[in-house]
């Protein structure tokens, strides 16, 4: 009988590792550095060595290990291959095959944002649901779509690339993707800063934001302090994100939207602004869809990676 | 061994029936009227009788019948229950359970638009693909999302309700759903007529559309005749629909969009206008997604219904 499972989240600077029991309790959590030199060729051997060391340290019976789940910052196809992962300096890597050979264990892999969504569904803000959309508001906007318990990967591994949903024709500067008017440009930490600077430049309305550092954090701190200009900025943010999520609901109709990433540290006030516009734009049947904040933070990836096997 | 399967498409006025072999060849196709009186209580017994008659007529061995697949114009949950189906005058109906009792055969059911998408994936415009979005441009705009070969049903059975994706803030009249700015308001047959009338009223530019009947058909006939005003209308239609499909690609990333419904009779010229804007708005990875016209017409429902079991 299987008792244990490894969940690995490979990031551009750090690899997060977790040893779980099959019920999803994390037994041990540690990190190793990501060595990207030589086209990242040490990354998988390093992960395999870390797993081997842990098996010996804890004296685990290999027969009791369900396998190794891995999240990577790039697309992963259904064969477990990664065409390219820029942050790891990888070109094509046959990830699953290579890791199975290195570890002698069963291996499954997925894109990191999708895997994090699976983690939040399993043990985080989306626990108890099977249709979950995770929205990650960080430097960019990422996402992961879980439909009927399964990750929506899509044809090009771009399932859940919701940061590039077009939400406005009012922008003149380009998104990193080359398009103009993407959700990421107005709902990420960077996007909120953009909205704030644009609003502050529009007139001289008094605001505690003036003269200080502008960031998603200072904007939502000002919202909590009842600053009118900050509340206008939050309304604009909420309108764009609420609209995008309403449109997602018209496609996959999730049970719940789970909001994570650095911006979500603003807390429940963030959801108020998003939900207000979501409920305005959403199709009748979907107006009651639940919202929650993500709960696993940076550990969502290792939870979801482990869940790939369980 | 199973040799046959029934595919049933229940509409508001007619019930389409098909007898298929398990490879998907339609052996027999017929229709019966939909009797909606008495809360549509005759509908399922009528379907069961039609199936029973066909089994006797063809002298089929019941052991060789894989079952009965059914599409209905309303939401169907994973238990095969229909909470309500307005066009059939149905309140709650335990569809799968009731039909299994009436026929003694295995029964599966789905929403008609979703089931049509499955049909187009199996034997129509999306054949050979596993990630398909069917877009039905009729009086309204409907859709069905197939991800990894499975229908995306969603939490409220609203998966694929793409007609109510918000695409514009420029409308002042309401959609049937109560919202304002839905795709259906600008991309259905009715929506194209609205765009045409609005464009024609804007100035006196010469157009063969003036003075005649305005419909999706006359607009695209005029496009084919190189009418400049009609081409402007088609551009606006293409912009809204291309935008909506680009946003869908950022959610589920299909292999192919299949365009069906009455408006699609305009033919390949329709795809030109949609694809132009799709490729402009779509996320980098998804810009090459394929487009095709639907091929099964009104038979998509019976094909997809049969496929539910195969």
Description:
The structure is a homodimer of 310-residue chains. Chain A has 310 residues and is of the alpha/beta class. Chain A has 10 helices and 10 strands. Chain A has helices spanning 37-40, 43-57, 95-103, 112-123, 184-187, 189-202, 216-224, 228-252, 268-281, 300-307, and strands at residues 4-10, 14-21, 26-33, 65-72, 107-111, 132-137, 141-147, 150-151, 256-260, 290-293. In chain A, β2 (14-21) and β3 (26-33) form a beta hairpin. In chain A, α8 crosses α9 (268-281). Chain A is elongated, with a radius of gyration of 20 Å. The mean pLDDT of chain A is 96. Chains A and B meet through α8 of A and α8 of B.
Keywords:
homodimer; about 300 residues; alpha/beta; five-stranded mixed sheet; 10 helices
> Given the helix and strand composition of chain A, which structural class is it?
alpha/beta
Low-confidence stretches of chain A: none
For the report, how would you describe the main beta sheet of chain A? 5 strands, mixed
Question: What is the helix/strand order of chain A?
Answer: EEEHHEHEHEEEHHHHEHEH
């Amino acid at each position: 009988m299987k008792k244990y499972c490894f969940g690995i989240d490979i990031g551009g600077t750090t690899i997060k590792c977790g040893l779980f029991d099959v019920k999803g309790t994390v037994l041990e959590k540690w990190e190793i550095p990501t060595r990207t030199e030589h086209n990242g060729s040490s990354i998988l051997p390093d992960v395999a060595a870390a797993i081997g060391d842990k098996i010996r340290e804890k004296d685990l019976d290999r027969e009791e290990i369900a396998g190794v789940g891995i999240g990577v910052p790039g697309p992963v196809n259904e064969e477990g291959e990664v065409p390219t992962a820029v942050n790891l300096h990888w070109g094509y890597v046959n990830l699953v095959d290579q890791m199975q050979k290195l570890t002698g264990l069963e291996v499954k892999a997925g894109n990191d944002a999708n895997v994090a969504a699976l983690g939040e569904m399993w043990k985080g803000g989306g626990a108890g649901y099977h249709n979950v959309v995770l929205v990650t508001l960080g430097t960019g906007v990422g996402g992961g779509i879980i439909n009927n318990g399964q990750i929506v990967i899509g044809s090009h591994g771009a399932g859940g690339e919701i940061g590039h949903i077009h939400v406005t024709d009012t922008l003149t500067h380009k998104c990193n993707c080359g398009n103009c008017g993407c959700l990421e440009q107005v709902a990420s930490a960077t996007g909120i800063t953009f909205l704030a600077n644009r609003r502050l430049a529009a007139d001289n309305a008094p605001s505690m934001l003036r003269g200080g550092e502008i960031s998603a954090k200072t904007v939502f701190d000002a919202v909590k302090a009842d600053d009118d200009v900050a509340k206008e900025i939050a309304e604009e943010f909420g309108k764009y994100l609420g609209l995008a999520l309403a449109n997602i609901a018209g496609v996959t109709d999730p049970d719940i939207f789970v909001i994570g990433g650095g911006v979500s540290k603003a807390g429940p006030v963030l959801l108020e602004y998003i939900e207000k516009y979501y409920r305005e734009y959403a199709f009748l049947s979907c107006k009651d869809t639940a919202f929650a904040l993500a709960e696993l933070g940076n550990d969502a990836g290792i939870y979801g990676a482990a869940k790939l096997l369980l």
